[in-house]
Amino acid sequence: MCPIATGLNVVLPFHPSGSRVFSTTPLVQLKEFFPRTETRKIVNTETSWRHPVYTSLFTQRFSEKQMRDIQVAHREARDWSDWVALGTVRFLRRSTDFATKYRHPPEKNVQNRADDFVMTERKWLVRFIFLESVAGVPGMVGGMLRHLRSLRRMKRDNRWIETLLEEAFNERMHLLTFLQLAEPGWFMRLMVLGAQGVFFNAFFISYLLSPRTCHRFVGYLEEEAVLTYSRAIEDLEAGKLPKWQDHDAPNVAIQYWNMPEGHRKMKDLLLYIRADEAKHREVNHTLGNLNQKMDPNPYAAIYKDPVDVHPTKGIDNLKPHGWERKDAI
Ligand SMILES: [Fe+2]
Ligand SMILES: [Fe+2]
């Protein structure tokens, strides 16, 4: 398939033979994709936040089981605001499926599927890169608008801002990770540019009108993200993605997630990313259940009874449908 058709030049940078399997991108160019800024005095830069955000407990006492236990889930819509959020996600899902040429085989007909249904490594990367370039927008818009509201109204924010910005940062790291595996062509860049231009402005206005609906929208979007990564993991484990079978995760990912030795393959990477998406799903469904103006952020809260089960930053206490307000605060 012509790379321009998908807008993506896919590369496997460290293939043992020295040549990349389906690349049209010279290795030299890829090396320069994220050039580190070096100056006369500065060696490197370091983060102000602790990373990774959601799976840090994991890295300390790594348990693959917890990441594997993550389930595809759906929170039923309960009111008109939920229906608006869910309807919008379903519309965007279909548009994105079209744009990224994503078609998963119908369960019943796996044996006789048409070529269009086969998801290759290239097709997955196209989808991941497009999705992640959009997924980093809501947290930044929400955090920015809450920041501005706090300044404008001279009121405290109850610590929502950091959680929203953390989410945006985390999504951007997903994108940067996949960009180590594939370099987008002009068509993909154009699509990302257009999607960001439209989506940023639409989300900005929507968040001003109804932040609760926007958090519900992100909750539903993250349900789709968990589904997408779950299917990719299934395909990988079923041997349908041979080029990723023994492929190392990019260095940027190993550093960001502190991936332990022996767990630094593509499959591990997808498990980490799915865990992040599952946490975004819970966080946003929970925030969508709260009073946007008054309630403190449960993910930054110190609880009176620390033994009582409550929302945490990690994925040890995951609630796919989010925490109800009465249980969270
Ligand atoms: Fe993501
Ligand atoms: Fe996400």
List keywords for this structure.
329 residues; mainly alpha; two-stranded antiparallel sheet; 2% strand; globular; disordered N terminus; binds fe (ii) ion; respiratory chain
Précis, in short:
The protein has 329 residues and is mainly alpha-helical.
Q: Give average pLDDT, whole number.
A: 85
Largest sheet: 2 strands, antiparallel
**Distance, first to last CA:** 53 Å
Outline:
globular
Small molecules bound: fe (ii) ion
> Portion of residues in helices?
40-55%
Please tell me about this protein's structure:
The chain is 53% helix and 2% strand. It starts with a helix and ends with a helix. It contains 13 helices and 2 strands, in the order H-E-H-H-H-H-H-H-H-E-H-H-H-H-H. 36% of the residues are buried. It is mainly α and 329 residues long. A two-stranded antiparallel ribbon has the order 1-2. One fe (ii) ion binds next to helix 10 and helix 12.
Layout: helices, strands, pairs:
Layout: H1 3-6, E1 8-10, H2 27-31, H3 56-60, H4 64-68, H5 80-99, H6 121-135, H7 137-153, H8 160-179, E2 182-184, H9 186-209, H10 211-237, H11 251-256, H12 266-288, H13 325-328
Antiparallel strand pairs: 1-2
This protein binds fe (ii) ion (2 copies).
